[in-house]
Amino acid sequence: MRTALVIGTGLIGTSAALALAGRGVVVHLRDHDPERARTAAAIGAGTDEPPDGPVDLVIVAVPPAHVATALADAMRAGSARGYLDVASVKGGPRRELEALGLDLTSYIGTHPMSGKERSGPLAGSADLFEGRPWVLTPTRDTDTEVLNLALELVALCRAVPVVMDADAHDRAVALVSHTPQLLSSMVAARLQEADETAVRLCGQGIRDVTRIAASDPRMWVDILSANPGPVADVLSGVAADLDETVRALRALQSADESKRQGGVEGIEDVLRRGNAGRARVPGKHGAGPAAYEIVAVLISDRPGELARIFADAGRAGVNIEDVRIEHATGQQAGLVQLMVEPSAVTILTASLRERGWSIRQ
Question: Which positions fall inside the Prephenate/arogenate dehydrogenase domain (predicted)?
Answer without folding.
Answer: 2-289
